[in-house]
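Collaboration report, partner site 2.

Our partner group contributed sequences for two proteins of shared interest, and the home lab folded both. The records are reproduced in the order in which they were received, starting with the first partner submission.
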Amino acid sequence: MTESALQRAILDALAHWPDCHAFRVNAGSPIKGFRGAPKGTADIIGIIKGRFFALEVKLPKKKPSKHQVEFLRLIRSLGGIAEVVHNVDEALHAVRSAD
């Protein structure tokens, strides 16, 4: 499975959860004239039951970059849910902590 296929599988699973809205973010590639998401922004961000979450999706044995770790640390420091996930179950477990 590719990382993009895993991201789609996670988004599909989250789409079935009530009170959850999630979407894919492309970071680090600004469009001319626009400022996009900063380098390190998590692959999937969203809100569940009023709580912000950020999921950095990695294939097994892959690790997040320094910028990705810093982004997740920032989200946690502000009260959000922020995790590196390697499969759908880890992603669902992470957002389940909003309950």
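Second partner submission, folded after the first:
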Amino acid sequence: MPIDPRLIKITIDINGQKKVFSQLDIKATGTKYANPLQNEAEVVISNLDKKTQDYILTETSPFNLNPTPKSILIEAGRQSYGAATIYQGNIVSSSIGQPPDIPLTLKCLTGNFEKGNILGRGQPTNVQLFQICKQAAQDFNTVLTFQAADKFIKNFTFNGSGIKQLTDIAVAGGVTVYIDNGAMIVKDIGVPLKNAVTNISADSGMIGVPELTEVGVKVKYLLDKNTRLGGQKTRWSIKLNKQN
């Protein structure tokens, strides 16, 4: 059976300057949540040139007074079907390793820049949940995917860190709210996203056998470009590297 080479591409955006990395030793691990918790990722890029290393380390340092977000985009897939976005977030810290590979490690969280963005939002006495979510999506600079039953919310107000707005909307509307891959998702609790159901079997890339847990079933399978967070999942983990 011929090998289908794996594709991994990392795009780092600092001060509007994008740096793309693909033809290097790249490893990425992460966890995504279908709730207001921030999606996590750790990216390790080895064998970068010193100039690029120093630039990224300086710009992503917590002592850097530049307040603009440092964004990262992770795309992955196979050569046969191409790469798709699997993670989008902010770099929160960076560190350098030892020779000979000198790995640069980036730790990332989704929407972390919004932690320092203090907002004050007030709505009319009765306002539709959709309108509240539309305003929040604009605050996060994301597109809105609204798949919940709309309803009127009374006296909705919010003051605080932008990221906490997701939790307040989820509680006020009785819905599931989260951010994934540049989109703010709002859906009814326990209802999967429309057109996001993946049939997992030995023929579609399942690895091993399903494992029963206290909250359901845990399944491992090969990465594909169709699976979406919220498609009958509440939490999933991924591990990637550049090797086949």
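Feedback sent to the partner group on the second submission included the following. The longest helix spans residues 129-139. Helices lie at 50-59, 129-139, 165-173.
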